[in-house]
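Example protein was shown:

_____
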Amino acid sequence: MAKKDGAVSSSGLKLNYKRTFIIGFAFFGILLLWQVYDSWCPTFLTELFRNAFSTSNEREVQYLVGIMMALDNLAALIMLPIFGKLSDKTHTKIGKRMPYILVGTFVCAVAFPFIPLLFHLNNVGGVIALMAVVVFFAMMYRNPAVALMPDMTPKPLRSKANGIINIMGYLGGAFATVVGIFFVLSQYLGTEKASDGTPKPHTWQYGNIWAIEIPFIVASVLMVVSALFLFIKIRENEIAEEVKEDMAKGEEMSETVDKVEEDKPMTKGNLRMLIFILVAEFFWFMADNGIATFMTNYAIYYLGTSTASSMINTIVGGVGSVIGFAIGGIIAAKIGRKWTVVGGLVLTVLAYVLWALLTFTTNIQGSGQFPFWIYIIWFVKGFGMSLVHVNSFPMVVELCPSKKIGAFTGYYYASSMAAQTITPMLLGLLLLNENFGWQFLPIYALVCAGIALVVFLFLKNVKVGKAGTKIGLEAFDQDD
């Protein structure tokens, strides 16, 4: 007999799509924030440090940019598990995750627009301090926001639900990118020229502040709107009661080496599985975040093109990701989560191989053009990595009881943040070497992604077919 909000039917569990889309508004706000942050802050820091050290060579300050971006991630590495465990133990009238989501969102929204303002005023300390405030409060709400989905979704359905959550997040990132295209950073930055038209060394002039301020303001407003919508529509405590029976059935159908039991230590088999996932995750984030952090600078300083091209590239990659998120759960239901992740990593590695080959066989440096083939590579990479992300997080929270979802969400993000702490610093230091230029970005990403693939192949494959979940059009059947 079917129950309200996507409970059990005679043929198995059904995903509540409407509720999952609404939960996705939390991730919409998260990626909206980070897309603006990652697209603009590295270049803000580059220009501030170039001014401070009176240098015309942007590569000389990339190690400092990498360190500053990494320190943010180091703070996140510490805070994400803390807020995850705190939210697990929190009990309020509005739920255990919602207080963190609301407080974190509103503080971030207030602080975020001051970053470009302080950059405009050439205030290095102020920019760094505001970046730290934004990161701290973003971490306060990120873990609880992501944990909402597994809180309310039975284990066999989490890959499909995670796909929806990530689609919502990428819509937020795409929206931020589109706004950025209309307010392009390279139009704000300019170098003073001599009477003969040649650039003067160490002289930078800034344009209209609204060219950099608007994307941050739009992001703040939409973050608040998405958080309020989530708060109004999702009643944590009520939903937790409604899905109890589904969650219990999902525990019996989970894809783990050993059965997960409440209040009992993790088995050796499940612990081994967790370690392999987190190690592989560390390396694929080393690849993905490394190139994401420096991609805007790559477009400006290596290709000699505008940031608009880089932002369009981000959208193209996002389109590939959305397709992967939409079908990643369905693929996993057929061949298993492990082999879906492996397939995604193989596609990603092949994309990086192609990028490296074409970089060293074509003359793109300083061309002022953004090669069309990079768009194709980014589409393939986006699709491949979406298959990885849509299944890897559910694999981690599959290994924990319901009382520890926040903590295990913290472990998942601690692994990614550890990578995102190391990779900007490492790449920044590598760029100091005269023999390691921007053209080596795809080589760096290829090595890291390749290691992730090898590690993941050692993961024990858990047989699928236990869940009896609905897939395809049948899964959209909902009870009112």
Notes: The beta strands are 189-193, 199-206. Residues 17-236+250-463 form a domain with the Growth Hormone; Chain: A; fold (CATH 1.20.1250.20). The radius of gyration is 22 Å. Residues 430 and 436 are 6 Å apart (CA to CA).
